[in-house]
Amino acid sequence: MSHSRTVEIEGHIIDSGTMQRCFGAVMDLGGSFDVEQFDVGTHEEAESYCRMAVSADDSETLQAILHELHQNGAVLDDPTDVDLVAAPADKVVPPDFYSTTNHPTEVLYDDEWIDVERIEMDCALIVEPEGGPRAYTKVLNAVEEGDLVATDESGIRVNPPERPRSGGGAFGFMQGGVSSERPSESTIREVAEELREVTEDGGNVMVVAGPAVIHSGAGDALAKLVEAGYVDSLSAGNGFATHDLERSLYGTSLGMDVETLEHPRKGHKHHIWTISEIIRAGGIEAAVEDGIVTEGVMYQCVRNDVDTVLAGSIRDDGPLPDTVTDAVEAQDAIREQAHDADIVLMLATLLHSVAVGNCLPSTTKTVCVDINPATVTQLLDRGSAQAVGMVTDIGTFVPTLAEFVLEGEEGEVAVGADGGHPQAGDE
Amino acid sequence: MSHSRTVEIEGHIIDSGTMQRCFGAVMDLGGSFDVEQFDVGTHEEAESYCRMAVSADDSETLQAILHELHQNGAVLDDPTDVDLVAAPADKVVPPDFYSTTNHPTEVLYDDEWIDVERIEMDCALIVEPEGGPRAYTKVLNAVEEGDLVATDESGIRVNPPERPRSGGGAFGFMQGGVSSERPSESTIREVAEELREVTEDGGNVMVVAGPAVIHSGAGDALAKLVEAGYVDSLSAGNGFATHDLERSLYGTSLGMDVETLEHPRKGHKHHIWTISEIIRAGGIEAAVEDGIVTEGVMYQCVRNDVDTVLAGSIRDDGPLPDTVTDAVEAQDAIREQAHDADIVLMLATLLHSVAVGNCLPSTTKTVCVDINPATVTQLLDRGSAQAVGMVTDIGTFVPTLAEFVLEGEEGEVAVGADGGHPQAGDE
Amino acid sequence: MSHSRTVEIEGHIIDSGTMQRCFGAVMDLGGSFDVEQFDVGTHEEAESYCRMAVSADDSETLQAILHELHQNGAVLDDPTDVDLVAAPADKVVPPDFYSTTNHPTEVLYDDEWIDVERIEMDCALIVEPEGGPRAYTKVLNAVEEGDLVATDESGIRVNPPERPRSGGGAFGFMQGGVSSERPSESTIREVAEELREVTEDGGNVMVVAGPAVIHSGAGDALAKLVEAGYVDSLSAGNGFATHDLERSLYGTSLGMDVETLEHPRKGHKHHIWTISEIIRAGGIEAAVEDGIVTEGVMYQCVRNDVDTVLAGSIRDDGPLPDTVTDAVEAQDAIREQAHDADIVLMLATLLHSVAVGNCLPSTTKTVCVDINPATVTQLLDRGSAQAVGMVTDIGTFVPTLAEFVLEGEEGEVAVGADGGHPQAGDE
Amino acid sequence: MSHSRTVEIEGHIIDSGTMQRCFGAVMDLGGSFDVEQFDVGTHEEAESYCRMAVSADDSETLQAILHELHQNGAVLDDPTDVDLVAAPADKVVPPDFYSTTNHPTEVLYDDEWIDVERIEMDCALIVEPEGGPRAYTKVLNAVEEGDLVATDESGIRVNPPERPRSGGGAFGFMQGGVSSERPSESTIREVAEELREVTEDGGNVMVVAGPAVIHSGAGDALAKLVEAGYVDSLSAGNGFATHDLERSLYGTSLGMDVETLEHPRKGHKHHIWTISEIIRAGGIEAAVEDGIVTEGVMYQCVRNDVDTVLAGSIRDDGPLPDTVTDAVEAQDAIREQAHDADIVLMLATLLHSVAVGNCLPSTTKTVCVDINPATVTQLLDRGSAQAVGMVTDIGTFVPTLAEFVLEGEEGEVAVGADGGHPQAGDE
């Protein structure tokens, strides 16, 4: 890597998370670091000091890395005076104006570090040279023509808050985590790629699904993923299976109901009737074999030998004969599925997702999708080391995921692949 | 209408909402009614009585209507004994088993109305003839072979709870509103059709949009709707416009950022810089004319003469010179837009949607979309008579809506239409 | 009732809910009505007409009733010209100014009904007599000195939107329900009174509780309610009981943890250890008898013979030997509790509340409290006729409720009551 | 500190956050560390190594610290074989059983580190000595009498997942943050203490309040805090002030309405009328001086010279003459308040809280309270270094806070303090 600069960082930089963020930034942005000196404070009051060279393949990447390090308090080891450019007009800033953080900040002017007054984020930083130089922030619409505006980051030092040495009582120490709001589609695309990779590598994909998957009309898309071999195990409840079976049992006429939903209570009668019919047939597999059930997620699971666990709950109707009503027995079955999984998709179910999450090693990748932010947060807190959380409508997530997974497949085929995808020959 | 039956309803049926639901059910399901007698209780303790003939074009529809009326307490005027069929096996019910409501219920057996014991919804209704006949509910898995199970609805009378004569204190009177969870896609399709109809009829479509529309990547889809002539006015804030302009100003490179979002704070600098550039150009329209802004929602609004109001707020950066910073002045401008609108789409913004909603007559159709259920509920409470609320991800809603609106348009053209759609020839 | 006026209402007033709201308003406000004429439209296109006399004990109540009827489209049978008063200053309205609704409106001026222009809610209504009289709305800050402002409601006719004759597609017909945001404390006070009444009448109080009741520190308050005899049955899960028992088992040291929560994972070890100890003792009742468990909700339930059902779930640790792990068996036990209850408190648990709600007749009063609005909405939709929903923190709700219930009790005693409250003598 | 042990930690321990958590745990728990050796990996692939002595005043604290370090992968520098104790009965574990994490784990048995199979959290760890020793987890109800269960933490090594060396795509690296659900009351107590301390030290308390504070009935409590001198500046909107003034203007009769809320629309007329009256008086201060407004938050703010900013918004009625309708002007006024504040209470308002948060340095303490978790999360993400977030009902938070603040005051006085509290003499 041909582009390199050396930076210094000091303070309580380990326990405040500063070094973690700095090392992370270098790696995330594709750079490399070489620690030249690292003096770790030997006790809690002692500060630490780190000097490291940071490198990147191109100057643009290096700039991006230095920007992140700067925001975390790093300074170039050979700082020069702040670069000042006069504002070209009222409310207009020069091209490379420095945009402030909300942390205490200093500027190097005439070889002296001056404190910046009126700290506030996303402002311009103005230096007033006359009368003992002063530096302060200005919001955009207060900038006046001729104001000396700081540009670039050289000569500017940020001091992010450090972890209090003694506990802060109710006040938690915030690390200013960057919560990037990612565009939905690109995230779903990445999940689709991961799903394809795991499957191609012979790995195990576990799906945990709630009844909202069927209610929202996403059942067909999930059935397609099962049919195409992207699901190895399914963990769900009596409600999920019954809703799915009901759609199959009532064929196209039920299709109309999904559009119009005129008779919700009549619908509930269908629900009970579906369970009664499956009981009469002797279970889901028998109902598939007898040709009673001819489509849907459960149908595809039977046809594709997907390891399925339906766990009972106190709010179940019926239940179906396939439902494991004993909580301990169901938990044991779920445990086996969870231990075998390489990636778990948790789709719109808090109860089943928590049950699965309780059994997962922290090394299993998890994807959690729910319309309720609290559900997503709760599941991500469970401790997977690599996790994706999405707050979105399951009725659009699953179809979009299926489209991306399956179009990737076709794309590959189109390019001339031999259809090496598992089960691709079946369909 | 050739199929017809006569029913009777009695009790406090007006103030308990029973008649409203009964008349509504007939009309919703495409039937017709003929009130033969209606005695309205003349004071608050007096009960009312209604006898009406209900008709439908086919017996299936008539059955559906009678089912709804039955659930609301209506009884055929010539009730016959309950139909009983023996359960064919344990946990299996006969085909047309009657599924209970949770309201007090009676069955007509041997010409006498007997109270049903153990009222609970979604159960089978069992009649035990011996020893002074008894009737009670059983959940599916308690049903035993040979149990006499009620089928159909004849000979069964439901008594929905009536409004308490005196106020219930903290306890509100619930009317058991049927909250149908509709599949997302079919609802979006109906909104798309409405949008096309209003536009084809020369009506006015108002869009109220929050910054999440842009953050979630839905800006392109909204820009397409504007370009295709489906938006007559846009009501938004400084943040929405700035995010949209930023995407345009930073061209394809910004496109990459939307994918990766590596530098969120750098992103914020872009935000301030965008405002600074628009100020330098003299406003959004000037920036479009100068070729600085070349795509996006604001670009299309300028190009298609969309009536745009950007209202300021205390959390704005900048603001843009186009932003109306005075709340009273902004409110007046929004009021003009609202009074002209025939349909309003409220997209992921509580603040602007409430401001618009305050000015709307109750006759304007409204569509409100937000990921937060509380926002949707609050907006629907404002009092439009015809409203759609969807709790979903704006990042998938707008693209799906645009797809349905625009595909409908092509479909029409394909059928040989003359391209009468406004502006269809422009692009 | 000495004060009386006669009003007329016409249109699709039954299926649009107008009559329901009008009758309801009279009763809610303590008035009385006497229907003089009611012509019900005999088919769906025919309009209905109602003329009724409304009475109240005092003129203030009568005014309040007439105001509500007016808002729903009723007109006095002897309407007089609108009362106009000149605005005393810019932006200042006369005392009894008429505040508009958002519905189409007419004013009677010179014996003619004129349409009001620019309909918008919460505005003043201005009449301009010159040049063929006009009427329109003005927001407060547009009112100018001398504007003729309508006062009172006489001579003003509101036309609320009517239910569309044919289905509105995706667009639901909104009835403009008045969602009163009630001050929290007064609602809790009413629930407390209801609880006391039910208990004093020998009724049955059922509590459904989630683990958040204990986590949030509300366990002590619930234990006090049990101890004082206000709880007849408890429906909960393994988690609720274990958390409660853990607090008891670890005595004061655990009390400290509840304050500081330094070792959450150590806390979880306590959780497992608690279950292990109860298993060793042979169950909760045995643990109470052996003096192992000496306080808390479960302790009080054992001591006060509260009918307790702990239902298992797939996310349970352990479980405790008292937990019913089979979902069907647990459901049956819950069903018995639900059928016996006169009032049910659902405290911060969706799973158990839905299970209980499924078994409840619509005549049982329910109170549902959760921090998540979606949970509250879902439970209220289940169809109790008399229900209270509160979106609030369970950690403050239960202590406040207990305080109100128990202070009421003391209050009664203080007044000289003989302590007739059940079990009051026990403590 | 007399108790001490030495531990070793190795791996990518800086960028995975391990060292931050370890140093933090020692300090949080009141211990002390002495780093004996710290070799920092000089580039991204190189692992780091840390050996440090940990001390505490008593052995219990030391154990607590070692437990936390252990969970983060630290091992004693002189590890001994795992301690095994036979399970005394089925489903019963020995007292000090080791409760597993969900991270890969090893046990030292016969001087060799063996991998633990079937990793899952909150389980017992069983060692099977025969046949080449094996170790695996068992959930509580699978434990059998005689199983050799690991106790304590010696001889057990946990390997928390490390940050992937290359970016994980959509999958974020989770640090297993401990989200302690704190009992509500103890947190409010800590905030109350902080408020008292800041005020006693002559610091500046800023309150940002939304209209829900008044709607929920918490206005009286806030007024008491203002009266007692605990509020230096108030940042709110037109709606907040109007609701508060309306309560004062309508005196006790309005008090009744807050209880019953019978006439919500009549209530809205009061709202407009209140604004009209304040306009007539010439503003809030004038209305207080004229004796028109005699109680409430705004009254106390005028009487106690609280620096008040009412910012306008496009959804305002009126507005009041005191409302700053220009967004830029309002923002500047808010900025001055924010820069002066030492602690900020954000009460049930997203709009105003974001506006204030945008201007705050990261060193200002913030307390954010809202019923909506998304609001709290969004505000805490803004980057205060010391922040408290509470998802709770504002209607119970403010009265409880006021009670704790004011009872603390009396308590102090009771103890014999000289009443040095500002303004304490006034009341």
TrEMBL record, chains A, B, C, D:
Residues 166-175 have a biased composition (Gly residues). CDD domains: SDH_N_domain. Its EC number is 4.3.1.12. Residues 190-401 form the Arginine dihydrolase ArgZ/ArgE-like C-terminal second subdomain domain. Its cofactor is NAD(+). It catalyses: L-ornithine = L-proline + NH4(+). Residues 4-103 form the LOR/SDH bifunctional enzyme conserved domain. Keywords: Lyase, NAD, Nucleotide-binding. InterPro entries: ArgZ/ArgE-like, ArgZ/ArgE-like_C_1st, ArgZ/ArgE-like_C_2nd, LOR/SDH_bifunc_enz_cons_dom. GO terms for molecular function: nucleotide binding; ornithine cyclodeaminase activity. Residues 154-185 are annotated as: Disordered. Residues 104-188 form the Arginine dihydrolase ArgZ/ArgE-like C-terminal first subdomain domain. Gene3D superfamilies: conserved putative lor/sdh protein from methanococcus maripaludis s2 domain, putative lor/sdh protein like domains. Catalyzes the conversion of ornithine to proline, with the release of ammonia. Belongs to the AgrE/ArgZ ornithine cyclodeaminase family. NCBIfam families: TIGR00300 family protein (TIGR00300). This is Ornithine cyclodeaminase. It comes from Halorubrum kocurii JCM 14978.
